[in-house]
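Ligand: zinc ion. Inputs:
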Amino acid sequence: MLVNEALLGEVKEWRKQIHSQPELGFKEFKTSSFIIEKLQSFGIEVHQGLGGTGVVGTLKNGTGPTIGIRADIDALPIKELSDVAHKSTHENCMHACGHDGHTSILLGTAKHLSDNKNFSGTIHFIFQPAEEVLGGAKAMIDDGLFDKFPMDAVYGLHNWPGLPVGEIAVNNGPMMASFDTFEITLTGKGTHAAMPHLGADPIAAGAALITNIQSIISRRVSPLQAGVISVTQMNSGDTTNVIPEYAFLKGTVRSFDMDVRQSMQDMLVEMVATLPSLYGVKGEIDYHVRYPVTTNNSQAYLDIKDAASKVLGADKVKTNVEPSMASEDFSFMSQKVKGAYFWLGVDGSTPSKPLHNASYDFNDEAIETGIKVWVSLIETLLPKTSS
Ligand SMILES: [Zn+2]
Ligand SMILES: [Zn+2]
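Predicted complex:
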């Protein structure tokens, strides 16, 4: 399967254009308009307004299954440091996670499939807003994504620094961890620092809490399971001779297993309610359940593996790779319908900058691989019926 050279050149230009005008989650107005304009120019039916700035393009050709392919379209609140010609023109906003690449690859796939209808069935091209922290996938689902566009399966990709261009990685099982956050308030009793016994010290209670939270992972979660609890913020006090009234902690919880995730939440809540009381301090926690584990359905995993092997060669399709403790809201979609998600290699002759780095720039050499895998997946799952 060949992707037209002229199309590849065009897609690279789209990618640079999207890169130069990055927009934050749920504010992807220009990006959304750009996508709509392109899809319409390919003769694809467009539905807008799902999850605010989300767009669904539908391409139907005969009878056959219905497949969804999703790209995330949002950028990050980071000031771009590189000096490329297509550098961000929006202050403190950049495509540091490569969603410009994902969007362009899906647009290129849509154009290719619209020009070469070598399939029988329906494809929904899902352009999803606000992947970074805000859960745009869930917003689209809440707006009726799967009710208005019922589909047999949904697939997604993310570019992956560390993996060479021309390769992909896909697991039969977890790819990305679940993601929750918490905020803890410790209420003590302020006093003179020289007379701690007259108050209740929320800093001492907080220090004990931070240390003991790690015992949840080391002593109470099975050593054969994986979990992370990181306290990432601690704020308290203003000076050297006063024990303050309050201490505030924030952090995140990650896991690859929904039961482990639940038990970590339960144990953290229990510990915050009880441990600070040993210091005369009251502990309260706001626990926010955010993204589920991104785990691949066994059949959908095979679909990706087989489709990619056909066009890239089996040796370029890595399986059983170590999953990442980062997270992905594609998990909301693959919880609803059969789904799989793969990593697309972006390391060229020089390795890619890491994701979320201020000098990150999506490697355009990976565009061809992305389009090839999507087209192969469609042609494999939606074979053209001979008439
Ligand atoms: Zn990201
Ligand atoms: Zn991302």
